[in-house]
Design a protein that fits this description.
Mean pLDDT: 86
Radius of gyration: 30 Å
Structural class: alpha+beta
Strand order of the largest sheet: 15-14-21-17-18-19-20-16
Low-confidence stretches: 1-31, 115-135
Number of helices: 15
Bound molecules: 2-acetamido-2-deoxy-beta-D-glucopyranose
Number of strands: 48
Shape: globular
Length: about 900
């Protein structure tokens, strides 16, 4: 039973998906991290795809030539997918080949559904007295206020002259707020479509073309966050003066391949982008994966790349996605917006002939005769009635079919009962006004004959009732062609690190994410008729950082990616921890959230632009217990023209456990513990003259009173206050425990199950598999029972091997491994490199990774996982685990 809750919590982590081999349970949603038979090859220097001839090697097509100054290589598709692993091994051994790696699958981090408040929750989680503020534009631009972008705009900076490339689903450049055109002189000046509209993932043929228009919406949303031009809603991009280029790697829906993402980054780089931003990724934690490597090389050549950290923060640490996790890449986390913005239909209300526009907070369904005006009818004039419409309406009630019926939100009954009671009198349209200040969401109640339900605010409803009581007539007409922006400026978790934002560190103990920007509840441009939409995710935080870099470039001149990371980090504001409960007000604490979640904190762009004290590096990682770096250092440089005296102090965050007491990967809200490291500085006060610099040594003593078996990450900030009023901070982190010793698999979670129910099989079970040669995609393993290798990875592993080992029966062609067992080969699709953490499962149709089929018989699966930081050449660095036995035969 306990297991189930773990699986359910991990299920929410699904970020990308779609392929044959692996399925993530329990949804059975197909999931894999590689494209069958497809490889990215990097050639040795001086080699290229033309010098690369594979006599007597398997047939392949070059899918994409990835050669550039960054990378000599190509992606290929082997014709014989069945024998791909073997062929790949032969290719890897060719002298021309430096490195080969399977093509990975990359998704848009799934947009996060912000908790859609229900009626009760709404009143509880919002302050009861929301007042419309006098400056609506300021509220529409709350993300700019949070990051000081508004102050930078006030100084006249807009990112003018800076070119930002967006690798995403394209841009709907026809949107009036995105320039309305494509080409020189437009906001979106150039780009390329690598895939075409109908591309949905790895089984589709990409249809490239010159027009990167967006039919998905995601890229358009990202583009608006960077550069939306003035519009009727008051939404403004953070760098409206930049020009954009669009490199489209997603079709209208679905995911994409890592080689396509590499090609897009390469082209963006070659076409002269000043900044490249990508709100995409795949579950990883490993900086050495090929896409991460390529993006790291672009960064090394001076072009900053901002990439979304991922949206898996609710379900565990150590899970920043690739390529965000790459060395030097700016991995961006998310914070909650201080205002909740939504768009709602506008309607008109006519009181005795005077028409005004009003916002309908919630709407479900469309009234027939759209645009037609109907009078408002009420049950009475009591605006304190807690049971308005809760019982059958009196016999003398008129036929309500020609009205909008206005009822007060009733605490005595639910909206469904109210709808049923008015429906009994023929009503087709219902307006609910709130019984308290604030927003009121309703569930859908459009059961026949009710066609439409909307809600309005309390003050508005009360005014209408009073007007009706005074004998005025009211007509309501909802039109759906206009949107109004509705803002709730008292969002109670505004400023907190988003609970969905993926949490680090990387498996190499790098600090990821580096810092963050508002990504929770972000209103921006959207495709089609719905011109604007609110979305949440690190996808929304990332473009704001890219735009901020454009502002810094314009104001301070070009800086290297490392200098930018230093500047944004040292000027960011670490945020205190907030515990967000579902149906109760959140709790704010007076201690900082972990560096593993928020990095350096929320970026402050005005401070970064005007900082005269430079701090380097952008963070300190003391590594794990085994590789503990006792003393690290940072350098302060005073670029001002006066002496500055700096006070150096320690502001610890609480430590955060990677695992629960029971040994499961921890999830939200995590367990924060008070013990923290002690830091000693070589100097706690330092005077630096103009143009001078000083290096301060930092010696850490890790905390004692923590349970090392649960891998607590300790972290915090070094605060540097200057006599000139400057105030900088430097994040640090360390791990109690040894990554080498980390048990990658949750104890007992690796077993052979039945693919129809995932239950472990009994030792005498025998599966009857589809005939040999049946393509995996033709077999629905939720309906046809086949053996499925199940495992819950608490940690990733650089390499995961799964050998098929005969049990009892004679095993022709088996070989003795160096680990002392006989194997007839690995499961098809293995080894799995840079295996991320999480739940993974691999259904098996009997095929081995050399393309042969295992003979009917009894087997077990023996797996080997390389330890984190382990050396693949040392047997002792591998963890060997075996499943119970099971039998297979084939139907014919
Ligand atoms: C309608 O408008 C007129 C003129 O502005 C105003 O005097 C009157 O009070 C308004 N009536 C209502 C019901 O708002
Ligand atoms: C931590 O130590 C491991 C093992 O030596 C090393 O590979 C890794 O780069 C180190 N991480 C950092 C951030 O120094
Ligand atoms: C709505 O909120 C109430 C109050 O906390 C909760 O008990 C209920 O489960 C929620 N309903 C839905 C549909 O989420
Ligand atoms: C400071 O740290 C860097 C990077 O780890 C190192 O190369 C350098 O030697 C250190 N400087 C001092 C003075 O310890
Ligand atoms: C968190 O840890 C503290 C002690 O470190 C313990 O008292 C508490 O019960 C833990 N909470 C959870 C949810 O594990
Ligand atoms: C440094 O400045 C910050 C912000 O002004 C302040 O909160 C903190 O107390 C200061 N620390 C010291 C040691 O002066
Ligand atoms: C398999 O073993 C279980 C008990 O372990 C037994 O109940 C079942 O009858 C056996 N099935 C076969 C086909 O032998
Ligand atoms: C053993 O290997 C040979 C040569 O590769 C192959 O022809 C034969 O089918 C294999 N036997 C089995 C039972 O797999």
């Amino acid at each position: 039973m306990v297991r189930v809750s773990l699986l359910a919590s991990l299920l929410a982590a699904v970020a990308v998906g779609s392929a044959t081999e692996h399925v993530r349970r329990p949804s059975g949603k197909p999931r894999s991290n590689i494209v069958p038979g497809a490889y990215i090859i990097e050639f040795e220097d001086g080699q290229n795809k033309d010098s690369f001839r594979l006599q007597s090697e398997p047939d392949y097509d070059v899918v994409l030539d990835l050669s550039s100054e960054l990378f000599q290589g190509a992606s290929i598709q082997l014709h014989d997918v069945k024998n791909a692993e073997e062929a790949a091994a032969r290719l890897a051994s060719l002298p021309a080949v430096k490195r080969i790696s399977p093509v990975g699958i990359i998704g848009l981090p799934e947009p996060v559904e912000e908790e859609e408040e229900n009626a009760t929750a709404t009143s509880a989680t919002r302050k009861s007295h929301r007042k419309r503020q006098s400056k609506p534009l300021e509220r529409a631009r709350s993300t700019h206020v949070m990051t000081q972008v508004d102050k930078v705009h006030a100084e006249g900076f807009t990112g003018a002259g800076i070119k930002i490339a967006i690798v995403d689903s394209g841009i709907e450049y026809t949107h009036p707020a995105l320039g309305g055109c494509f080409g020189e002189g437009c906001l979106v000046t150039h780009g390329w479509d690598f895939v075409g509209n109908s591309y949905g993932g790895i089984y589709d043929e990409p249809v490239p073309g010159p027009d990167p228009i967006d039919c998905n919406g995601h890229g358009t949303h990202v583009a608006g966050i960077i550069a939306a031009q003035e519009n009727e809603l008051g939404i403004l991009g953070a760098a409206p003066g930049v020009t954009l280029s669009a490199y489209r790697v997603f079709g209208c829906e679905g995911n994409t391949r890592s080689d396509i993402v590499m090609a897009a980054f390469t082209r963006a780089y070659e076409e002269g982008a000043d900044i490249i931003t990508a709100s995409l990724g795949s579950s990883s934690g490993w900086p050495s994966e090929m896409t991460s490597l390529l993006v790291s090389r672009i960064v090394e050549r001076g072009v900053p790349c901002t990439v979304a950290a991922g949206n898996t923060g609710g379900t565990g640490m150590w899970d920043v996605s690739s390529p965000a996790v790459g060395n030097g890449v700016t991995a961006v986390g998310s914070f909650q917006n201080t205002a909740v913005a939504r768009t709602f239909p506008l309607g008109s209300v006519t009181m005795d002939g005077n028409s005004t526009r009003t916002t309908f907070i919630f709407r479900d369904g469309y009234p027939s005769g759209q645009g037609a005006s109907y009078p408002v009818w009420v049950t009475g004039f009591d605006t304190d009635n807690t049971g308005d419409g809760c019982s059958a309406l009196p016999d003398d009630t008129p036929d309500l079919s020609g009205y909008w019926v206005l009822l007060r939100y009733a605490s005595d009954c639910d909206v469904q009962a109210q709808a049923d009671n008015i429906a009994a009198k023929g009503a087709e349209r219902l307006i609910i006004y709130n019984d308290r200040p604030g927003l009121r969401w309703l569930a859908a109640y459009t059961t026949s004959p009710i066609q439409a339900v909307v809600s309005i605010e309390e003050q508005e409803g009360v005014a209408w009732v009073q007007a009706l009581e005074a004998g005025l007539s009211i007509h309501v007409d909802i039109s759906y062609d206009a949107q109004s922006l509705y803002l709730d400026a008292d969002y109670e978790i505004g400023g907190a690190a988003s609970r969905f934002s993926s949490i680090g560190p990387s498996f190499e103990m790098d600090l990821v994410p580096r810092f963050g920007a508002p990504g929770g509840n972000i209103m921006s441009t959207w495709i089609g008729d719905e011109s604007f939409r609110s979305l949440s995710g690190t996808s929304m935080a990332t473009p704001l950082v890219a735009a901020s870099i454009a502002l810094i470039f314009e104001a301070r001149g070009r800086l290297s990616p490392a200098e930018l990371n230093d500047l944004l980090s040292s000027n960011a504001n670490p945020q205190v921890h907030v515990y967000e409960q579902r149906f109760a007000p959140p709790t704010w604490y007076d201690w900082f959230s972990s560096v593993a979640l928020q990095g350096a904190g929320l970026i402050q762009v005005h401070d970064a632009i005007h900082a005269s004290t430079l701090l380097s590096p952008s963070g300190l990682s003391f590594n794990d217990t085994t590789n503990f770096a006792g003393t690290l250092n940072f350098t302060l440089s005073n670029t001002d023209n006066a002496d500055v005296v700096y006070d150096i102090s320690h502001a610890p965050a609480r430590s955060i456990y990677s695992f629960t007491r029971e040994g499961w990967a921890a999830g939200y809200p995590y367990n924060y513990s008070e013990p923290h490291a002690e830091l000693a500085f070589s100097e706690s006060k330092v005077k630096i003259s103009p143009g001078g610099s000083a290096t301060i040594l930092v010696t850490a003593t890790p905390p004692h009173d923590l349970d090392e078996s649960r891998f607590p990450v300790w972290s915090g900030y070094i605060a540097i206050n200057g006599s000139d009023g400057s105030s900088l901070s430097l994040p640090y982190q360390g791990l109690l425990g040894s990554l080498y010793d980390a048990e990658q698999i949750l104890e007992g979670s690796l077993y052979i199950g039945d693919s129809t129910n995932y239950a472990p099989v009994s030792p005498n079970a025998t599966f009857t598999l589809p005939p040999r040669g049946t393509p995996p995609r033709d077999v629905n393993t939720r309906e046809t029972a086949v053996p499925i290798l199940m495992s819950v990875f608490n940690w990733g592993t650089p390499q995961f091997i799964a050998d098929v080992v005969p049990v009892g029966n004679c095993a022709p062609n088996s070989t003795l491994t160096s680990f002392g067992y006989r194997s007839i080969g690995q499961l098809n699709g293995f080894p799995s490199n840079w295996q991320p953490k999480g739940e993974w499962s691999w259904p098996w149709l009997g095929q081995l990774n050399n393309g042969e089929y295992a003979p009917p018989g009894r087997y077990k699966i023996v797996t080997r996982m390389l330890r984190i930081t382990g050396d693949p050449d040392k047997d002792e660095d591998w963890v060997v685990t075996e499943t119970g036995p099971f039998g297979i035969r084939y139907s014919s």
